[in-house]
Amino acid sequence: SLLQGWSEIAVNPPWPGACELYDPLVREHHTSLVASINKIWSDPPYWMVKPERKELKAKAQKVEAWINQKAEAANLKKALYEVAYLACAQPFALMYVGWKQQWAKSREVAYENVETEEIVPTLMEQEPEFSYREQPQVKQELLYNGVEYRVPDSRDVYLYPPDAQDKDTSLAIMERMWLTAEDLLRGVQEQGYDNDKVMELLRFGATHPTSYESSPKEERDLNDGLQPSGEDGYYETFQVIGRLPLIWDDGREKIVTPEYLQDEDFLFMICPQHRIVFKFVATPFPRRPYAKFGMLPVPNRLNGDCVPTLLEALQEEEGEEDRREAAE
User: Fold this and answer.
1) What are the tens digits of pLDDT across the range 263-280?
2) With contact defined as beta carbons under 8 Å apart, do 147 and 99 qualify?
């Protein structure tokens, strides 16, 4: 059904019932445009540093090399491709530019002094007059501590209020995140999630079991031919970066939100369906960590034009001509 109207029975087909598939106009132009953009963006340098004075040229070159090495380590190349793909296919695209840490656990055997309970890491450090027993040790190693580039699907990003047209002037920007139980548990260590709230969330259970329901994720997975991979499902959560709402007293005579908390952004992780907030901190970023991209931005609007909107009329006209020719 996905190819209805795109094909016709082939003349002298390679096998019985084969057809000739005509590439739709939107896909053809989108692919060409993304390839052209990616060709420009794919190779460093990603950033260029220009000195204000000639005597600073050598220092600027070192800074430029350092910045590009960091961008390469953070996989900026992949994020730029995703931005180009989505910006050409959807009304806008956002790149999240934040910070992340990745940890790895390792297990080692140490030795505990039976009498003093002192731990020594190796056999060589044991004192002969004492007895020792093996003591398993779990160590955590920091694998990565640096910039994170992430490009969410535009359908998973919302501004509040809904009619806000700029990520910086809106009250808040929200990004939907589909998290598994393992993501939530690991997030206690890696993302600073509240352990008690995460355990409460897990007791409620997944908001979306692993069966196809009417949500953007299920629809995308179904179109890609992906099947559920487990029984626990996943949790529909939102990362919210924005200001606290202004709360009035019962008589609506004064605002009770403390003044020192007003006009300041906070970072929340929430699960609306279970009504649980499992992270609430002052945002560590000086500004909202999203960069907006668009193929053809419309002034004073969040949504702009992209390949599908620009070619919609031509696509319909070409599809109608193909159907008429096939009928003849």
Assistant:
1) 889 999 999 999 999 999
2) yes
The Cα–Cα gap between 137 and 74 comes to 31
How far is it, in rounded angstroms, from Cα 53 to Cα 317?
Answer: 57
Q: What confidence tens digit (pLDDT) does each residue in 267-323 have?
A: 999 999 999 999 999 998 888 999 999 888 888 888 888 888 888 777 666 666 666
CA-based angle 239:245:248, to the nearest 5? 155
Which pTM was predicted? 0.73
Other CB atoms within 10 A of residue 160 CB: 15
Which band of pLDDT confidence, cut at 50, 70 and 90, is reported for residue 1? very low
Q: What is the DSSP string of 239-268?
A: EEEEEPP--B-TTSSSB-S-GGGTT-EEEE
User: What residues contact 36, with CB distance under 8 A and at least 6 apart?
Assistant: none
Give the separation between CA 328 and CA 317, rounded to whole angstroms: 17
> Please, which contacts does 274-282 make with residues 24 or more away whose CB atoms are closer than 8 Å?
274/201, 274/204, 274/207, 276/197, 276/200, 276/201, 276/204, 277/197, 278/184, 278/193, 278/194, 278/197, 278/198, 278/201, 278/237, 279/191, 279/192, 279/193, 279/194, 279/197, 280/194, 281/192
d(CA 287, CA 121): 45
Examine the pLDDT at 210 and tell me if it is beyond 60: no
Least confident of 17-21, 59-63, 81-85, 103-107: 17-21
Residue 236, both tokens: 């529909």
3-state helix vs strand vs coil in the chain, percent to 5 = 35, 30, 40
Distance of CA 23 to the CA centre of its chain: 30
Please report, for residues 3, 44, 56, 71, 108, the alpha-carbon distance to residue 59 in angstroms, rounded to integers and kept in the order given: 57, 19, 5, 18, 44
Pairing of strands 132-150, 235-243: unpaired
The pLDDT of residue 318 is: 64
